[in-house]
Amino acid sequence: MTEERFTVEVTISAPVGEVWRALRDPEQIRRWHGWHFDGLDKEIDFIYAEHVTESPQEHWMEVQGGDRFELTDAGEGRTHLRMTRAPLSGDTEWDAYYDDVNEGWVTFIHQLKFALERHPGADRRTVFLSGHGTTPPLAAAGLDALAGLAPGTPYEHAAPTGEPLAGTVWFRSDHQLGLTVDGWGDGLLVVAHTPPVPVHPEGVAMMILTTYGRTNEEFADLEARWNAWWTRAVPAA
């Protein structure tokens, strides 16, 4: 019996060539991959440039020892992206983080879709929050009621920081929820909570806030408010 591999699939409203460039150009990758921190450029180089096997003509590439991206034309200017994880390596130390990498790809691929569909060519600003998962961030932020909504469903919610949140559900997965946020310049909020595993015995809680068009003062205020709330609500990692 063949072991089923972990996959992430999305259809992006952008042509195959545009999606391919967003996966191969470091400047474009910075506009969607993860969150901003001092080591982002090195992380992008490590994942998307070092030891990559690719076929630009067939629009596939393999990164990180075998994680495979395949792009196909979905018609009407759309692209189907399928990412298939490499199998477990047999290195018990590395394999202990296999599920963490799975969750990372879920986040990154939905960030890619969001950037290309809603903000092509635009720069962003991000806030990254993480901590132990003993307090799920959905519950801490009062977002439980949104967890069951289907992608595309409009929502309105009062954030724990006091600001109103409104937009649509961008994506749902087993452990993550993505919400567009009108008030962040049509931004994106990703909320994740993974259950306990041996390498994370208390689980992992995470939020990524992606904003557009904020002034320095507006972004600094948002960052300060959410960091202050997170420090009170979620134990530090």
TrEMBL record:
Recorded superkingdom: Bacteria
Gene3D superfamilies for this protein: 3.30.530.20
CDD domains given for it?
SRPBCC_CalC_Aha1-like
UniProt name for this protein: SRPBCC domain-containing protein
Q: Which organism is it from?
A: Nonomuraea ferruginea
